[in-house]
Input
Amino acid sequence: MRVEFERAQRYAYPTVCMMISVDRLGALQDIYGVDSKQEIQQAVIELLESQTRASDFLGCMIDDRIHAVFPHTSATAAENLAQRLLNGARAMQFDGDGRTLRITLSIGIAHNEDKEAISFDTLIGVAEEGLCVAESGGGDRFIETELYQLYENNQRDQEAGGEQPRAPLRAFAPAEPDAAPLSLLEMIEVEDSALGAKLRGFIDAYEKGSVSDLMEGQTSELVPQESVSEQDRQVEAELAEKKRDMDLLQRRLAKLTEQLGLTEQELARVLKMKNIDPGLASIYKTVQGLSEDEASAAVKKELMVKIFEANIEFRKQLEERSSEPN
Amino acid sequence: MADKRKKEQNGEQNKDHGVLYLGIDLGTSRTSVSASNGVRETISSHVGYPKDVVSKKLLKKDVLFGDEALDKRLSLNLYRPLAEGVLKCSQEGGEEAKANQRAASDLIREIIRCAKPRSDELIYAVIGVPAQANINNKEAIIAAARETVDSVMLCSEPFSVAYGLDMLEDVLVIDIGAGTVDLCRMHGTMPEDSDQITLTRAGDFVDAELMKAIESSYPEAQFTIQMIKVMKERHSTVAERAEPVIVSLPVGGKPQDFDVSKELRGACQKIIPPIVEGLGQLVATFDPEFQSKLKNRVLLAGGGSQIKSLDTAIEIEMHRTLGEGRVIRIEEPKYGGSNGALKIAHDMPEEYWEKLK
Output
């Protein structure tokens, strides 16, 4: 898989790495036995194979997780594939001690389209982080993170300092296997304490039912009261001016309409006096004829011919009659 | 005609500002026009000329038409140039024929004028004539029309009704006018003589029957045929259960109310049997495979179709005598024929119009 990644980098084509795990697989094994676990894993692998072309991926199983690399696959295509895998897993059913078992998947996605995705380890690390986030979020989802830069920076820092590179974003993975996973808010607080504090304040206010006050306070901080009043006055002034313009235009329009009516009346009077009726123009500027799109066009065309021929025949009869000696 | 000739002499043949299509329905009682400039007009087919110099001075016109002519008929020589669907002037005769010819020409000229044509537009007109109009009738109509339009064609009236509604196949058309009831069988091609039946028991017949019935029931009442016609057009019905028709008629100069429900219903019902009999003839001589379809596509048109419940009454009679039937009344009885003629005018190819100029 590493070789494939390096080839992708060399020839600049997109490659995706996925980490896939079955949610609560350990618990399922505990309840239904190792055979059930193997059956489930085999089914997931078959699902993966069925959703991709045979040459589309390389994979291996490490610690009950499927590591897969998809050459020539864009990030968008990877998301679509991940969604199909999730749907396929949801549709699966297994028999466990007379009970029907259903499974879901958690998927972490990483791609080499980010400029910081310069090493295979980065790709793996990012996919693992995504998988951890998916599992922490309750599973049955896929996560695509954009933590490449963080990974690379950590790698460089550690190598420069001679220290062992630490796993970045440790907060996103449980410190101990049995420890409860961090909530989303806690994760954010670890990463960005200021943002986390604001969010916690918002959540506390929501729980107390005083969100509007909080929002108003936030807004007040951003927009000084005096400038709001000044803006309102300006807007009102502009509106008033526009209204005056509209009134003026409407008055002018009414006057012109009245004058037009008088002119038309005068014109009609003169025409009547002179016994002139200009007539009404037809809507047709040219001779129309039957449209080919007309329903029953063929039948109507023939009828037109018959009518014309009948009139021609009648004219001939008239001419013959008029040419007969009396 | 004089205007047109003068224009030609002066080279004023500049008619390149558009094409006005006219669809004209010449009826015994009413004449209608539908035009491609949006105009639709209908006038009663009456033409009146002032009787003498005094009435001419009073009326300030040389000729009056429609309801205006009826209103002023005491001062006019009143003509109804069409009778039983044909032009009276086409019959052999002396002064009377010439007068009717003149009235017909003026009527056609007037209905075209009602369409408000522009002088710089070509006018192409299609005129619906009664199904069995003869060569003399048609000649008179064309001669009158050619004075004011650039090109004119004639077509069968009931056919134009069906064409206007796009009902060209397996349809029976009943066109009830004042002078005639035209029955026409449509089967996707031009109707031939064998596809058409003309009955003379129509609107005028109903007027005459109603007049006789009221005279018989109320001999003291004073009325004219025109009053009978108005009464019929306002209250006509064939329904057995309808609101009573009370009309006011003078008796010795004093108005009095009369219940004419029975007389009116009886007169209107008299046109049903010949219509259904005619339909039966047309159905019986049709392809047996399509007879049922024909009976269930009967189109009721013309001014007479406005008689209330007439469609239902014809259906009932068809069920009794022919086993089945379905009658559809057209939505615009006054303009059904002229709308159809307009559509024909619109669909006619240009080269055909040119050849008939």
About this structure: The two ends of chain B are 14 Å apart (CA to CA).
